[in-house]
Design a protein that fits this description.
The structure holds two protein chains of two kinds. Chain A is 21% helix and 29% strand. By secondary structure, chain A is an alpha+beta fold. Chain A folds into two domains: 2-92, Nuclear Transport Factor 2, Chain: A; 98-176, Roll (Archaeosine Trna-guanine Transglycosylase, Chain: A, domain 4), CATH 2.30.130. In chain A, the strands form two sheets. Chain A has a six-stranded mixed β-sheet with strand order 7-11-10-9-6-8. A five-stranded antiparallel β-sheet of chain A has the order 1-2-3-4-5. In chain A, a hairpin with a 2-residue loop joins strand 2 (38-43) and strand 3. The radius of gyration of chain B is 54 Å and the shape is elongated. Mean pLDDT of chain B is 71; it is low at 1-27. The chains are: A alpha+beta, B mainly alpha. Chain A binds chain B through residues 2-6, 9-10, 13-14, 17-18, 22, 24-25, 28-30, 37, 39-40, 127, 129-130, 132, 152, 154, and chain B through 89-93, 95, 97-99, 101-106, 108-110, 113, 116-117, 120, 124. Chain A: It is found in: Nucleus, Nucleolus. Chain A: Interacts with pre-ribosome complex.
Chain lengths: 185, 187
Amino acid sequence: MRQLTEEETKVCFQKLAHYTGSSLSQLVAPTEDPNERFVFRIHGSRVYYVSERNMRLATSIPRDNLLSLGTCIGKFTKTGKFRIQLTALDVIAPHARYKVWIKQNGLMPYLYGGNVVKGHVGRWSEDCPEHAGVIVMDMNDIPLGFGVTARSSAESRKLDPTAICVFRQTDLGEYLREEDTLFTT
Amino acid sequence: MAPTKPSVKGKSSSKGDSKGKPLSSGTKVSKKNVKRPPPTEVKSKARTEKSQLRKTKKREYTEEELGLPKLNQITPVGVVKPKGKKKGKTFVDDAEGMRTILAIVNAEKEGQIESKMIKARQLEEIREAKRKEAEARMAEKKSKLEDVKQSIRQKRKHKGDAGESKAAASSSGSSKPKGKKKSVSFA
């Protein structure tokens, strides 16, 4: 477990900023309690968002025995790119830049790994460009996953109900489908 | 120290004057005594002189100066590491550093999104303009068609009136329209 280098931090934040607005700075901002600060740590190839207190406690565990700590944000590939993971959803959802709310009838198709079609969209953030990162939510504002818009919000109004609006990247169903590989190092 | 220097100077001056003399003189002792001081003086002068420094400079060639082809060097082009840079990773842990990186990343992202939106708007405008143009063309075509239809209808009406009058007036007038029809069909 170690701190991120400058380059790694930049790559990681670039990916997070794809889905979030300027409020992302809240992640590294000091909290109300001055002792409770959150930090990013890399362990193996995985990046964790963890409270400083927990991080200090984790230093007492041998590196080989430490499986996970805090919230896993994603992992670095061998080529130096950053893959964001479903577990980061809770971290980025409150700071989302664009959101798509899906109706009850689109819930199951999405959670089973399908893309979001126009007919299932209940609401949509205005002025959303093409290929922008969006957080997918149900009508009760519960985050279900995230994806990338297929069309801009202006264009998608003209689409027919079966046309794809959002390409799925992750959904909550992955907790079951990817159970074996989600937390392996 | 002060008294010794003038003596040396005096000697050197005497030698300078009598440079040819030591060569001619045969005594060894006198030669040694005379020769020793001047080389020291010359050396001290030479070290401080620019000519010495120039020599050392000339010996040091940078790779660029040598003008070797880049692919012919020991270290490949991409592998050359910058000199004087700290080895290893530079970690970012302080909140200030993180915030600056975040600010840079955010600004980049904002710029990208802004440019995307501008592009999308421009494209939308172009599409709208094209659509309007196409609609205008269609409307024009339709109006033309309507005009033609109208004119044909009017002609028919006129012809109908004329035919009736002609039929009533003369029976030979029926041969002329047939001829006209033939010419149209062949053309």
